[in-house]
Specification:
The protein is an alpha/beta fold and about 325 residues long. The protein folds into two domains: about 140 residues, Rossmann fold (3-Layer(aba) Sandwich); about 130 residues, Response regulator (Rossmann fold), CATH 3.40.50. The chain is built from ten helices and twelve strands. The strands form two sheets. The chain has a six-stranded parallel β-sheet with strand order 2-1-3-4-5-11, with helices on both faces. Strand 8, helix 8 and strand 9 form a beta-alpha-beta unit. Helix 2 runs parallel beside helix 10 and helix 3 runs parallel beside helix 4. The N terminus is likely disordered.
C-alpha cells in the first residue's frame, strides 16, 4: 500500500513539474513575443496624405494611432492641404529628409509620386501604400479596398436602384489610380451584366464638392433622362446630391456615393444620397503601421519567402467594402 501511494505521489509530482514547465515556457514565449512587438517613443513613423483636412482620413489616422499605442512608438500625420500633386511631392520629400522609421503613403498620382517613393526605399526607409497605389514603385505593400470590385459593387447597387435600365453618369478623379479602378469596375460590370443600362457621361469632379455639383448638373442638362450618378470619391458625392437637389431631380436621379464622412451619412439618412460605399479605413491605418514596424525591425522580408526567422510581407491586402443605405446607416456613424 505504501509503495502504491509513493508511486502515485511520484506520478503526480512529475505531472506538476511538466505542467509548470509547460506554462512557464508559454509565458516566456508570450513575453518574448510581446517584447519583440515593443518599440520606443523615439521610433517615429509618418503618414502622408493629400487634402489633409477632409473627414475621410480620420478613420485611417485612428487605426494608425491605435497601432502606435500598441507598439509604443510615435506617429506623425502630414499631408498636402489641397488636391495638388506637386504639394504632396514636396511634403513627401520633406518627410524623407527627416529619415523616419517608416512612411505610410496614399499617392495622389501613381507616376508622379513614384520617384519619391523609390528614393525613400533606396534610402532604407520602409514605405507601404494605403488607399491609392503606385504599382510601378518600390513600395513594399499596398493596403486598400479592392477598388475594381468596389466599382462593380457600385454598379450592381445602382442597377438595383434604377430597375436595371436607363442612362447613368460617373463623376470621378481620372488621374488617380484607385478612382480609375472604381470607374473601370463600374463600367465593365454595367456592360457585362446590364445591357439595358448605358453610361452616357464620365466627368472629372476634381475631389471638390462644388466642382462635382456642377458636373452633376451638367450631366442632368445634357441627358435629361439620366436615372443615376455614381461618384467615386469621398467629397464629391455630397456635391452630386447638391446638384440633383438644385435641379429638382431628387427621387428621379439616384445617387451612389463613396465613403462615410458625416455629411455623406447625414445625406444617406435624409434620403438625398441613395447609397454609399464604406471602406475599411481603420484597417488601412492599423495594418500600415504594423507592416512598417515589422519591416523596420527585420521581422518580415518582402518577396523573399519564409525562412526560420522571417516571413513574407503580403504585397496586397484587401481591407473590405460595405454598402450603406438608409436601412443600416446608423451603424456607420463614429461612436
Amino acid at each position: 500500500m505504501k509503495k502504491l501511494l509513493l508511486l502515485y505521489l511520484v506520478v503526480i509530482g512529475a505531472y506538476l513539474l511538466y505542467a509548470l514547465n509547460f506554462f512557464y515556457g508559454k509565458g516566456r514565449a508570450a513575453h518574448a513575443e510581446s517584447a519583440a512587438l515593443a518599440g520606443s517613443l523615439d521610433e517615429r513613423y509618418v503618414m502622408v496624405t493629400f487634402q489633409s483636412g477632409i473627414d475621410y482620413w480620420k478613420g485611417i489616422i485612428k487605426g494608425f494611432e491605435d497601432a502606435a499605442q500598441a507598439l509604443n512608438v510615435s506617429v506623425e500625420y502630414r499631408g498636402s492641404t489641397k488636391y495638388d500633386v506637386r504639394e504632396q511631392v514636396t511634403v513627401l520629400e520633406q518627410v524623407i529628409a527627416q529619415k523616419p522609421a517608416g512612411i505610410a503613403l496614399t499617392p495622389m498620382h501613381p507616376d508622379e509620386l513614384t520617384p519619391s517613393i523609390n528614393k525613400a526605399v533606396d534610402a532604407g526607409i520602409p514605405v507601404v501604400l494605403f488607399d491609392s497605389g503606385a504599382p510601378g514603385s518600390k513600395a513594399y505593400s499596398f493596403l486598400a479596398t479592392d477598388n475594381y470590385n468596389a466599382g462593380a459593387t457600385a454598379a450592381r447597387t445602382m442597377a438595383g436602384l434604377i430597375g436595371g435600365k436607363g442612362q447613368v453618369g460617373v463623376i470621378t478623379l481620372p488621374n488617380q489610380w484607385n478612382h480609375q479602378q472604381r470607374t473601370a469596375g463600374f463600367r465593365d460590370t454595367i456592360r457585362a451584366e446590364y445591357p439595358d443600362i448605358s453610361i452616357v457621361a464620365v466627368k472629372d469632379g476634381k475631389g471638390d464638392r462644388v466642382v462635382s455639383r456642377d458636373a452633376a448638373m451638367e450631366i442632368i442638362d445634357e441627358f435629361p433622362d439620366v436615372k443615376g450618378i455614381f461618384n467615386t470619391d469621398a467629397v464629391g458625392g455630397v456635391g452630386v446630391a447638391d446638384g440633383v437637389r438644385l435641379k429638382q431631380k431628387q427621387g428621379q436621379v439616384k445617387v451612389v456615393a463613396f465613403d462615410t464622412d458625416k455629411v455623406t451619412l447625414d445625406m444617406v439618412r435624409q434620403g438625398e444620397i441613395d447609397a454609399t460605399l464604406a471602406q475599411g479605413t481603420w484597417n488601412m491605418g492599423y495594418w500600415s503601421l504594423m507592416f512598417l514596424f515589422h519591416l523596420n525591425h527585420g521581422m518580415v522580408q518582402p518577396d523573399s519567402g519564409q525562412t526560420a526567422d522571417t516571413f513574407p510581407l503580403p504585397v496586397y491586402v484587401d481591407t473590405g467594402i460595405s454598402v450603406v443605405t438608409r436601412e443600416n446607416v446608423e451603424d456607420f456613424y463614429v461612436k
